[in-house]
């Protein structure tokens, strides 16, 4: 029994800590009907709907099909690396950073394994590190790119265009930095691959086009969710439509929803709601955060990851723009600064356990460099 608990804690560390904090806070502020007012059901509903729809689109092979079409146009290793990284950067804006990594990191590993041993060894860690950074930074541009944006955007009651304007300079800077890094890495690449060899990399896999009926159905639901994000449709309508469609179309998709994320949000809502009922703690935390929202969000993200940091800090400041910038940039840094980064780490460890140490070192150095450069952008802007 103890072993099962420890295994669960290791697997779901953030959820476990969030649940423990929520339970401990209940001894100070006893459970009551006001607990329901703590929970942001709109955010939870949207997260559930988007995760379900993206799981459906992934299952019908839409992302694999698009990726293969795009990559088949590559004519050099550098162009392949650029496309693999940009797929994560731009798709994360729509399908979230974690789904982008789940989709495109395995694809990158498959492609790179077809290259020569020397080229594979050179590129595999560099590419996956950059894909991870690209997914974490690309996702910051849109309200649906990552969970903290979806939550803070709704909390701030800002328009989608306002969030895009806020994050656009940092997204452009991130894209430029990624392209510069690839250019530098490609310049030091050992050996080269001919155009004929490149074309052979895509001659084996011929992904079928996704079923049009299913594709249209999921895209309509996705559009409805976007209307909810834009505050045009009530979130309960999208929730009912998604539940109904998936139940009759493919109820197995319910198993692919990240319920641990939804439960983590719920636990943190309760914990923060209770903290706000404690005047002494409330005033203390506000005094620390006030005027330092961005830096506090970045530092907090390094320890508890950016999603919990966004929920925690949003209870003690109204400067949501600073929190959006801080929690997005704060996804850089440590391996847990953005929980999506663990996805790439697991794929590398599964591929070859001896690569874990090298990957961790390369990942940390690259993240620190990107974090410092984007911090300079914050000061300039």
UniProtKB/TrEMBL annotation:
Membrane topology (UniProt): Multi-pass membrane protein
Descriptive protein name: SLC13 family permease
Keyword Transport annotated: yes
Regions that span the bilayer: 12-32, 44-67, 79-111, 123-141, 162-184, 215-247, 259-275, 295-316, 323-348, 360-380
Key words, A-Z: Membrane, Transmembrane, Transmembrane helix, Transport
Subcellular location: Membrane
InterPro entries: Cit_transptr-like_dom, Diverse_Ion_Transporter
Chief location bin: membrane
Domain Citrate transporter-like span(s) in chain numbering: 17-313
